[in-house]
Amino acid sequence: MRLGLNIGFVFGGDDHLDHLRLVKEAEALGFSVTWAAEAYGSDAATLLTWIAAQTSTIDVGAAVFQIPARTPAMTAMTAATLDRLSNGRFRLGLGVSGPQVSEGWHGVRFDKPLARTREYVAIVNSAMRRETVVFEGSHFTLPLPDGPGKPLKLSIRPVRDHVPIYLAAVGPKNLELAGEIADGWLGILNDPSYLGEQLNHIKAGRAARQPDLGSGASLDGFDVVASVPVMVGEDLEAAADPIRGYAALYIGGMGSREKNFYNALAVRMGYEEQAKEIQDLYLAKKHREAMAAVPQGFIDSISLLGGKERIAEKLTAYAEAGATTVALTPFEPTVEQRITTLRTVAEALELAGIGD
After folding, report:
1. What is the pLDDT of residue 10?
2. 94 and 206 share one domain
3. Pick from 174, 172, 154: which is nearest to 163 by CA?
4. If you compute the radius of gyration of the chain from its CA atoms, what whole number of angstroms results?
5. What is the extent of the structural domain holding 262?
6. 123 with 243, same domain?
7. What CATH code is carried by the domain that includes residue 62?
8. For a disulfide at 348, which of 22, 110, 237, 311, Cβ 3.0-4.6 Å?
9. Separation of alpha carbons 275 and 267, rounded Å
10. Is residue 4 within a helix (H) or strand (E), and if so which, with residue range?
């Protein structure tokens, strides 16, 4: 198992300099990848280009590029450029975002996301293989049939024949799709005890990809990325407190009452009553109360909390459950404290004896 680093999606002031310090420390510690996200603030491509220019060994990954924000061809162009500029260190994470961002920010209907994602990835892969792109689907048609457009081919070459594609997936059908068409999965709110259930859906997708293997389809070569908050400290309740806002936002505020994928995930994980209470409070703008309603056990289950020995045990649980990368999100308030945390987790991985 390898370690990764999440650097989030909100940047302002000198935050980018702190994040660069953190990425360089992760690189020195042997972390495999740093991931950058985007919502409706900083874009991921610009940030990853800047980081790639100032690092040499750590991979740079989009977690994620929003599918409604870019045409498939634009994503292929960006991925090819980042792959060249990073000398083959780019990983392409994709996600459909949610109805609020897709329709409210990008003006793209949140319509049939599974079919849209399947077509999108097919076009990206075709373009990255430097084929002359011709595609006729329900959501994308290239070239348009009733105008002067002509089939085109990507005019630059990525460093690699195939840039790995990851899907951010939460629901069962999305997990199956990730197993079928992607090289890795970007998970969130990952509890090792529930990870096996999620991987069963991914394996079903792999079986569709490898029908000759049936239910014996393997996840060999498939990167299972568990995104995990981390706080070092012997007082577990105090360590959990900074993570409460993150958990309440996802369970309560990342979507509407009718469609919140993360709330539905918490329900599947066994927190139905708590998930409803958190959402009710959050949507009523009672954010502090929503944070307080997140169970300590839930935060502990999806996070690395405690000292080095306890973190080593939890990393072992992730590895045994099937995670191949644990991507850390440190929640300490200063960059110096976050650097210390990265070092502690790296030592915990060595203590556990499960690092690649």
Report:
1. 58
2. yes
3. 154
4. 20
5. 236-304
6. no
7. 3.20.20.30
8. 311
9. 6
10. strand 2-6
Of residues 39, 59, 325, the one with CA closest to residue 48: 59
Structure tokens at 228: 């995990």
The predicted structure's pLDDT at residue 34: 98
- pTM of structure: 0.96
> pLDDT value at position 6?
97
pLDDT for position 213: 59
Single-letter residue type at 69: A
Query: Does 267 lie in the same domain as 119?
Result: no
In terms of domains, do 43 and 132 share one?
A: yes
User: Among 304, 322, 338, where does a domain finish?
Assistant: 304
Task: Tell whether 211 and 283 lie within a shared domain.
Answer: no
The end-to-end CA distance of the chain, in Å, is: 5
Rounded distance, CA 150 to CA 2, Å? 44
Task: Tell me if 124 sits within 8 A of 92, measured CB to CB.
Answer: yes
Do 128 and 112 fall into the same domain? yes
Residues forming a β-bridge with 133: 152
Q: Are strands 325-330 and 2-6 parallel, antiparallel or unpaired?
A: parallel
**pLDDT for the residue 155:** 97
User: Looking at this protein, which amino acid is placed at residue 171?
Assistant: G
| Residues facing 92 on adjacent strands | 165
Q: What is the DSSP letter of 302?
A: H
> Low-confidence residues of the chain, pLDDT below 50?
none
Distance of CA 282 to the CA centre of its chain: 24
Task: State the pLDDT at residue 161.
Answer: 85
CA 287 – CA 251 distance, rounded (Å)? 12
Token digits of residue 236: 């577990």
- How buried is 85 (Cβ within 10 angstroms: 0-12 exposed, 13-18 middle, 19+ buried)? middle
Q: How far apart are CA 232 and CA 310, in angstroms?
A: 10
- Location of structure tokens 């569709």: 208
Q: Any idea which residue has 């790296």 for tokens? A: 346
**pLDDT reported for residue 330:** 96
- Measured CA distances, 241 to 1, 57, 192, 246 (Å): 28, 34, 21, 10
Q: Based on the structure, what is the number of domains in the chain?
A: 2
Specify whether 127 is located in the same domain as 266: no
The residue whose two tokens read 């100032």 is 54
Q: What pLDDT is attached to residue 218?
A: 78
Give the integer Cα–Cα distance in Å for 9 and 54.
19
